[in-house]
Amino acid sequence: MAWNEPGGGNKDPWGGGGSGNQGPPDLDEIVRKLQDRISGLLGSVKKSGGSGSGGSGGGAGGSGGGFGGDLSLRVIGIIAGLAFLGWLFTGIYIVAPAERGVVMRFGAYTKTTEPGPHWHIPWPIEAVQIVNVDEISSFTHKAAMLTQDENIVDVELTVQSRIQDAANYLFQDQAPEKTLRDATETVVRKTIGGSKLDFILTEGRSAVAATIQERVQSLMDAYKTGLLVTSVNMQPAKPPDQVKEAFDDAIKAREDKERLENKAEAYANEILPQARGEAARAIAEAKAYRDRVIAEAEGQTSRFTAVLAEYEKAPVVTRERLYIETMEGVLGQNNLVLLDVPEGNSLMYLPLDQILKQTPAPQAKTTMLQAGEGMTTDTVPTTIRDTSRERRSR
């Protein structure tokens, strides 16, 4: 019969009557009652033995029985004390580094102890349950699920977990592992159903696994299972066998696209610096040509300005001089032979090839008067006349 059932008289396990205070009994009172019970039992045995020997022993036997009774009580007290000490020693326990101790008093949670030696009130008052919080447990979940774009994909993932809160693990959920499996299945279906097939098959595998782990952990915290999801490893998703070839072709086409893009990018990285170098060289040559043309034009302008000043002073002489120098420049570059022979001479042999080889081509004289050479209007006619005389004498 239980302690507090009807008809039990509210008696405690040691035969005492109950009171209005329902708290835990005092240890000294428990020990005292236990000693009284043992003394009562041994006292009844002693009295029965003394009555059997009293007829023959007389008064001496009565005095000896009193001494023996005191000795028996002392022995019983020592035995009871040793038993009590042994009972207290049973409350010592050691928690390993990878474990936690959950202390329960009359079945109710009291506290959680960390690694190291500890003591609790021995049974039946308190009890300790050791829980390994570093042990990793895992399970694999496989299923065919529907994606957001209404395609079917085969998903396989491994979930690893460990105990995070020993008290919640023992008392808040009746089956934490089953709760974890059910929550994982629910979260996987929701996550896969919100993602497209191409994303799941290609670059989205790690992102999907991270999302699943976060959502499962949120449910574990809400249910107070005391479990910590350490990792979710998602295997490469596969399409159903009926459409696997088509998906393989699509994946191959995507890989070819990436390969061609990388090749084009490499070619661009190679050709662009070369094109930039050629463009820079062409620009430099154009600038050099521009500077050269500008310099030549400026020089010709300077010479023309100098001649213009002389022309304004002596126009006729300057025109004749310019004409003569121009003709020298034009005809001086040609192989021209002029002969003045008397009339009637019909045949003449000239070795022109040898003559032209031996006689250097005449150098064209300066066509323009150089500014700053010291030539004035007085010297120009004299120079022209001297040149004309030379030509006529020839």
Automatic annotation (TrEMBL):
<dbReference type="InterPro" id="IPR001972">
    <property type="entry name" value="Stomatin_HflK_fam"/>
</dbReference>
<dbReference type="InterPro" id="IPR001107">
    <property type="entry name" value="Band_7"/>
</dbReference>
<dbReference type="Pfam" id="PF12221">
    <property type="entry name" value="HflK_N"/>
</dbReference>
<keyword id="KW-1133">Transmembrane helix</keyword>
<dbReference type="Pfam" id="PF01145">
    <property type="entry name" value="Band_7"/>
</dbReference>
<feature type="coiled-coil region">
    <location>
        <begin position="243"/>
        <end position="270"/>
    </location>
</feature>
<keyword id="KW-0378">Hydrolase</keyword>
<dbReference type="InterPro" id="IPR050710">
    <property type="entry name" value="Band7/mec-2_domain"/>
</dbReference>
<dbReference type="InterPro" id="IPR036013">
    <property type="entry name" value="Band_7/SPFH_dom_sf"/>
</dbReference>
<dbReference type="GO" id="GO:0008233">
    <property type="term" value="F:peptidase activity"/>
</dbReference>
<keyword id="KW-0812">Transmembrane</keyword>
<keyword id="KW-0645">Protease</keyword>
<feature type="compositionally biased region" description="Low complexity">
    <location>
        <begin position="376"/>
        <end position="385"/>
    </location>
</feature>
<dbReference type="InterPro" id="IPR020980">
    <property type="entry name" value="Membrane_HflK_N"/>
</dbReference>
<keyword id="KW-0175">Coiled coil</keyword>
<dbReference type="GO" id="GO:0006508">
    <property type="term" value="P:proteolysis"/>
</dbReference>
<feature type="compositionally biased region" description="Gly residues">
    <location>
        <begin position="1"/>
        <end position="21"/>
    </location>
</feature>
<dbReference type="GO" id="GO:0016020">
    <property type="term" value="C:membrane"/>
</dbReference>
<feature type="transmembrane region" description="Helical">
    <location>
        <begin position="75"/>
        <end position="96"/>
    </location>
</feature>
<protein>
    <recommendedName>
        <fullName>Protein HflK</fullName>
    </recommendedName>
</protein>
<keyword id="KW-0472">Membrane</keyword>
<feature type="region of interest" description="Disordered">
    <location>
        <begin position="1"/>
        <end position="29"/>
    </location>
</feature>
<feature type="domain" description="Band 7">
    <location>
        <begin position="90"/>
        <end position="251"/>
    </location>
</feature>
<feature type="region of interest" description="Disordered">
    <location>
        <begin position="374"/>
        <end position="394"/>
    </location>
</feature>
<comment type="subunit">
    <text>HflC and HflK may interact to form a multimeric complex.</text>
</comment>
<dbReference type="InterPro" id="IPR010201">
    <property type="entry name" value="HflK"/>
</dbReference>
<comment type="similarity">
    <text>Belongs to the band 7/mec-2 family. HflK subfamily.</text>
</comment>
<comment type="function">
    <text>HflC and HflK could encode or regulate a protease.</text>
</comment>
